[in-house]
Amino acid sequence: MATLLRSKLSNVATSVSNKSQAKMSGMFARMGFQAATDEEAVGFAHCDDLDMEHRQGLQMDILKSEGGEEGSEPPLEGDIHYQRDGTGPLPPSASKEAGVCSELSGQGKPKITAWEAGWNVTNAIQGMFVLGLPYAILHGGYLGLFLIIFAAVVCCYTGKILIACLYEENEDGEIVRVRDSYVDIANACCAPRFPTLGGRIVNVAQIIELVMTCILYVVVSGNLMYNSFPNLPVSQKSWSIIATAVLLPCAFLKNLKAVSKFSLLCTLAHFVINILVIAYCLSRARDWAWDKVKFYIDVKKFPISIGIIVFSYTSQIFLPSLEGNMQNPKEFHCMMNWTHIAACILKGLFALVAYLTWADETKEVITDNLPSTIRAVVNIFLVAKALLSYPLPFFAAVEVLERSLFQDGNRAFFPNCYGGDGRLKSWGLTLRCALVVFTLLMAIYVPHFALLMGLTGSLTGAGLCFLLPSLFHLKLLWRKLLWHHVFFDVAIFVIGGICSVSGFIHSLEGLIEAFRTNAED
């Protein structure tokens, strides 16, 4: 009897100890040690082999066995992540929120075809920022046209090698997807010494690009409205303030369902506007100034043109998610080829015919060169598109900031900006409003579309499209690369670095000069 009693007490103690260990694992996961992907989880576990064995072996068996016992406590959210096969049931919160990995991998969501993926890429690289390309030809001439082609080729290549970094060869020699996002690739390159440094760098670059995109939308809205109605006693700064007042409700956005309904119409409207501009230019083909197209460059302003061209091709940041949601990921390379070939042809033709039409009078936003009879109508459509496009990068920037600074467990720098009921706290709303106001202040003090676009393209565009993909490709797959791949990666990294530094310095000098001029006024 005593032996039986001691056996039962021993079993109870073991069960309690195992439950306690399971809860501790979940607690540590929620405190910030839970990785975003399985690859990060493995990378973290390599820092402690004993902990890895514990979580992946005995601990997971306990969780699975206890999950089926009647009256037992459900496994904690942090513990689900570490299960070997990932087949464990999701907790209620996970099923509602649908975590980052499941969203990116597309599990439980309808897959998209190659044509639909190509449409998404086209929307990213054929947006309204092509309106600044004729201005790039003004300072670059035929070399500017070459750069439009060169940037398309390089961005297509770096997009492919970025996706290649998502895959590795398993023990059976099969190529499997082990990462889900740009951040995962960056973290893998910096592991094990700095397992989160790469992701933080990519997040900072992404935030800068998203916020600068918002600023550009405000700048272009004020510019277009001012040039559409020059007789009204309203300055460009005042138009920017009016545009920002319209955009202020973006601070209250919880999702983008309402905004996304207009995205297709906006894109179609933009294509129609491009066709109208090209049609007007073709109607003046007899007056085209071929002799104005230069074989030399403006040394001071051409580096800005490089940033403008690069910025018009930025799409790498969302390519991993897009490829993960394709029905047939093998079609990704073909999709990248035809989208970038189409973008190269359309951008080159648009920039060339627009510059030939207005030559040295080409303005930063090409629609400002149109006759007043049609300029107002075209610009109003463009302003509507800019205002409806603003919530997309704004909401993405807010999500990155909130996840990095407010919702990252004990690693967060500030308290959570959401209450227990999921409602946004007052000070969280204030921060969102402050971000909208910040974009307005930048648009007021530096109302130069080309300079801002060149700075963003040189800083984050070149980094995300040229430098980081080639660097990550060399770091993760250098043992399997052929010599010509190594050559291409090194060449892109060197050329991209030179162009990025040169464009950034010249754009920054122009912005500082413009800022001083506006401050004096």
UniProtKB/TrEMBL annotation:
One of its GO terms (cellular component) is inhibitory synapse. One of its GO terms (biological process) is neurotransmitter transport. It catalyses: 4-aminobutanoate(out) + n H(+)(in) = 4-aminobutanoate(in) + n H(+)(out); glycine(out) + n H(+)(in) = glycine(in) + n H(+)(out); beta-alanine(out) + n H(+)(in) = beta-alanine(in) + n H(+)(out). InterPro entries: AA_transpt_TM. Its main location: membrane. Residues 111-507 form the Amino acid transporter transmembrane domain. The chain crosses the membrane at residues 143-167, 207-226, 262-282, 302-322, 334-356, 376-401, 429-446, 452-474, 486-505. Residues 65-97 are annotated as: Disordered. GO terms for molecular function: gamma-aminobutyric acid:proton antiporter activity; glycine transmembrane transporter activity; L-amino acid transmembrane transporter activity. Keywords: Cell projection, Cytoplasmic vesicle, Membrane, Neurotransmitter transport, Synapse, Transmembrane, Transmembrane helix, Transport. Antiporter that exchanges vesicular protons for cytosolic 4-aminobutanoate or to a lesser extend glycine, thus allowing their secretion from nerve terminals. The transport is equally dependent on the chemical and electrical components of the proton gradient. May also transport beta-alanine. Acidification of GABAergic synaptic vesicles is a prerequisite for 4-aminobutanoate uptake. This is Vesicular inhibitory amino acid transporter. It comes from Corythaeola cristata (Great blue turaco). The lineage of its organism: Eukaryota, Metazoa, Chordata, Craniata, Vertebrata.
